[in-house]
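Recall the central idea of this unit: under ordinary conditions, the amino acid sequence of a chain determines the structure it adopts. In this exercise we apply that idea directly, starting from the sequence alone.
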Amino acid sequence: MSFGFSYVGLIWLIMLFVPNLIWTKNKPRDYEEYVHKENKILLIFERLGQFIVTPVALIFSDFNYKGWNFWLPVLGLSFLCMVLYELSWVRYFKSEKTMKDFYRSLCGIPVAGATLPVIAFTLLGIYGGNMLMLIGSIILGVGHIGIHLQHRREVYGPKKKKQLPVRIVFGILKGIGILLLVAVIGFFAFAITGRNIRQIKRAITYRNGVNDQIYVQLDGSEGYINVFGVSESNPVIISLHGGPGAPSTFVDYDWQEYLADDYTIVSWDETGCGRSYYRNADTDPDNSSLTFDQKLADLDALVDYCCDRFGQDQVIILGHSYGSLLGSSYVMAHPEKVSAYIGVGQCVNETDYYGDTYSYEDALRIAREQEDDTSEMEAAYEAFRSDLSLKHLMALREYTSVYHPQTDMTDTSTMAAIFSPVLGVDDARWYLLEMETLMGGTRYSELIAPLEEKMTTFNLYEAGEYQVSVLFISGSCDWVCPAGLVKEYADEYGLRYVAMEGCGHSPQGQHPDRFADIIRGFLLEVD
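Accordingly, the structure predicted from this sequence is:
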């Protein structure tokens, strides 16, 4: 939730109040007779809802126009409801102004004058991600719509009963419709309330430190970072996500918050993806300037920014999956700027996706020991070797994963995403772009294509040597960046290695507290 004037809220309130002011001089005949019969409980709900909705609409900038995005139709629907609301008033003012005219349905919507603005403000709450607007709209709806439905029944009398089969069918359809509506609104209310609570908690926790979601100028473009911590004087951890091109900034806060008392956390949507991509999409829509070297230069600029802003000589680099490839390359090139390196799901040998060959060979061994039919898995591997595409890679992993089950299926990342206090429209846009790949979409693959060469040629053994303190963390059941390969490398070079038992490729999204404890213990030893 963001405090600030909302011009959209003001427009909605003007559209709401102006017809009501005109109505005070054009009330239906006998209206006062019905007012005295209003349910007092419903009236309390109505007044309370009005008390919440009116100021909230004005003091939160969440409701203002945010550009073209997939949330815009929600704002559009909200506005459409307000337009229909105005039309219902125009129709009434042109009528004979009877109670029946006042309570006529519009486009099948009963008591349109009460129902439409409630829907409009509910949608506005969803668009703005504001729990106060949602709560206020629901309370208002119970009271306002309830009162006017009561009046409508009094004006029109009981409905003529339909035949029993018709009543049953309509009853079932109506019940399903109500359940769907309650489920949808309930989900949004649940998610938005959880998100707002976390936003408020963060604002309080980091009030004397830093809590920014900003864009900073890097070497070649602007980059999005999420920065938070209780003190700006704490050491800085720069977190690099995987992929390439799979930003997890909006989820990673879940494990990073366990470290925020002692460290300033900086999560970066790396160049060419996520919010950073959309920030620069007007000038480089196809990522034509994206290269691995450019990413390294941008990371170097980010390190310099963090050191200058927070008064540090060095930073701590943490890389997950592809981020460990980027992080390792940077740490080996700039050891003077890094005090420690943490590789999570560390890339060791990615030459032609060797990790998946390693996984395949182990899965094939297990399958043969079990005397399973391996023909389909072998065919999938041959297809993959002939075309190292994402499509064939995912097909191969479907077969190998059967023989490498993850024994600990705990997951905190899904709820962390739903309740994320830093989730933005562009985070969701990019995630949907990633998901498109599973349905045959190619845009995501095209955008990250400039990084594919590095992904298929990187070999940690040939990259150089670490000249800083190093910790590797793997899930013991990680076969994406096989834990066995990481342990072999760590043992050979005498580096710290910790396996989180039963976890997969992203242990930080399974046991964030344990994960953070491992990091804290390591960094305390380094200090």
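The longest strand covers residues 210-217.
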